[in-house]
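Subject: Sanity check before I submit

Could someone independently write out the structure tokens for this chain? I want to compare against mine line by line before I put it in a report. The sequence has 120 residues.
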Amino acid sequence: QVQLVESGGGLAQPGGSLRLSCAASGFTFSIYAMSWARQAPGKGLEWVSGILSDGSNTYYADSVKGRFTISRDNAKNTLYLQMNSLKPEDTALYYCAKGGLTATHDRDYWGQGTQVTVSS
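---
Independent answer below. Compare away.
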């Protein structure tokens, strides 16, 4: 069965960095677009970033463009999100998803999420 397991969340100071990972199994990772989304306390789900199956194209929400970088290692079945210049408003539960290349693309599987808290 499809499994997506996120890791790497935690507490960071404003201006700091974190790197999230998502280990995928149960499907042919290398042929699917993947994405990250987040949900802040009391807010709806926000699409953050997506990447094509071969990593050749990436897409970002305006709120993270220039600060976050999505990447993947198809040999390791792993998706990444490098988050730099973190802001308090980046505090959220971050999910990886199968599919969801852009905000309008469907996602059919989600991980359990990893918490990111940005605070001094």
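---
OP: Matches mine. For the report I'm noting this point. The CA atoms of residues 38 and 94 lie 4 Å apart.
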